[in-house]
Amino acid sequence: MSVRGVDIHALASYLNDFLGIAAIRDWKNALNGLQVENGRPIRRVAAAVDAGEHTIRKAIERDCELLLVHHGLFWSGNRPVTGVRYRRLKLLLDADVAVYSAHLPLDVHPELGNNVLLARRLGLEADGSFAEHEGRDVGVTATCDLDRSELEARIEKALGGAVQLIAGGPERVRRVGVLTGGGGGMVEQALSAGLEALITGEGSHHTWLDAMEGGLNLFYGGHYATETWGVRALAEHVAQRFGLEWEFIDAPTGL
User: Cα(30)–Cα(104) distance, rounded to whole angstroms?
Assistant: First the structure.
């Protein structure tokens, strides 16, 4: 079947509106939106968590004109185009592959966001929000009635690997927060929101004390593992809307 394709600027404009890019204040180096343009129609989309050299090469090998990612190219800020940055950009420009990145806008999206999709995968339905950042809550809350061990088992099944549990809260859990990625620093906000458990990717050493002494069950499932959901769903959504093909490039970091 022939795929006609779509112009990258038309596709980026749609994504900007759909994700509310302009309205969400992210970290300054996130640079949400179109990070690298190209000059040919988009027919195949590669989705990945990170815009690294490995995922760029895989997108090129698989004849994708667009790499759609959660973590973009410029987290290290305004730096010379040398070393790793040079290699990544040269690969993209030589192959005429575009990059579109959505960080916080994809985390918080009410339909295709990492948080709501992971919660749903765990059998939980988001019923509220917590964890304020720049005037906007970035995590979701849910109600349940589960033994802590059952919740841990569900998380491990969903993420496909072991979970680090800091068991500072009650053994029976009724209020849960989901904040994918590096949400370990939100223990205090989770407690202020009346949560008994926080499911996230990673956090600092001191969060063990924060959770144990504060009375919170803190589940660390890995930054990468908790953030594959949104970018997959977004790529599938775009493919269906514009009649494109898509695939997910899995490149786990183990972190």
Answer: 8
Phi/psi zone of residue 171: left (φ > 0), alpha (ψ -120 to 50 degrees), beta? alpha
Say if CB 190 and CB 240 are below 8 A apart. Answer: no
Instruction: Measure the CA angle with vertex 16, ends 229 and 71; round to 5°.
Output: 45
pLDDT digits (tens, 9 = 90+) for 37-82: 999 999 999 999 999 999 999 999 999 999 999 999 999 999 999 9
Token pair in block for residue 222: 């890995």
Tell me the per-residue pLDDT of 114-170, one tens digit each, with 9 for 90 and over: 999 999 999 999 999 999 999 999 999 999 999 999 999 999 999 999 999 999 999
DSSP code string of 86-112? HHHHHHHHHHT-EEEE-SHHHHS-TTT
Residues 71, 77, 80, 84: is their CA dihedral positive or negative?
A: negative
Which of 117, 105, 69 is closest to 226 using CA atoms? 117
Residue 160 has a CB neighbour count (10 Å cut-off) of: 11
Percent of the chain with pLDDT over 70: 99
Q: Whole-prediction pTM value? A: 0.96
Asked whether 244 and 5 are in contact (CB, 8 A), the reply is: yes
Q: How many Å apart are CA 46 and CA 64, to the nearest integer?
A: 6
Contacts (Cβ under 8 Å, ≥6 apart) of 206: none
